[in-house]
Amino acid sequence: MLRNLITSNLLVCLLLLFHISTSAQSLDKVNNGTIVMQPKVSFDGNKMVLVANYYGTLKPYISTFESDSNSWSMPDAIFSSEITSQYEIRYPQLSFDNSKIYFSAKKEGKGDFDIYYSTIENGEWSMPEEVPMKINSGLDELAPAISADEKKILFTRPMPEEAKADDYCKEIYISELTETGEWTEAAPLPPAYNTCLLYTSLSPRD
């Protein structure tokens, strides 16, 4: 189960490229020469969230697969300028039913990235809400990956100074939703998973 939940950014890209190459889907509207990063395809395969600087600033966007043209649509901004002016958003991921979006964000006035979520209401995404403090800390929480049932979440934090090989090493943490509706204290995965994870996206598979 745990191994299925963890997939490196490289593997995600390879799977996406394989899917695109075998079905000749077009990404021309997504890749228009600007910086495009951290793409994640939804569980149903019909939507893709990503971060790009189409208009000079890195912001989260969403693209929809258009079956009639076998291509991905021109991405739309996920959040209003009111929200993106207050939050520096990275690593978006849609929930199983596409009704929520989880992401890492640095709120204006704060020095670290925390994990937030937003829900879609009448076609618009709500103001971000922090996940419980048992997940967020005073360190950077990046690359959240939520399971299909929204009962497990993986993310990264910086490795302890004495353990990391270089400044870019990250450590994968997990938290689980209990039957009482509370999230467990986030804990690092076993050492076999945490030799030194570089900047990457985690992707859930179940």
Mean pLDDT: 84
* Oligomer classification: single chain
**Radius of gyration, rounded?**
17 Å
Name the structural class.
mainly beta
Characterise the protein shown here:
It is built from three helices and 14 strands. The N and C termini lie close together (8 Å). By secondary structure, the chain is mainly beta. The protein is globular, with a radius of gyration of 17 Å.
What topology emerges from the helices and strands here?
Elements lengths: L1 H4 L3 H15 L12 E6 L5 E6 L6 E8 L4 E2 L3 E2 L3 H4 L2 E8 L5 E8 L6 E8 L2 E2 L3 E2 L11 E5 L5 E7 L11 E7 L10 E2 L18
Antiparallel strand pairs: 1-2, 2-3, 3-4, 3-5, 6-7, 7-8, 8-9, 8-10, 11-12, 12-13, 13-14
Please provide a brief summary of the model:
With 206 residues, the chain is mainly β.
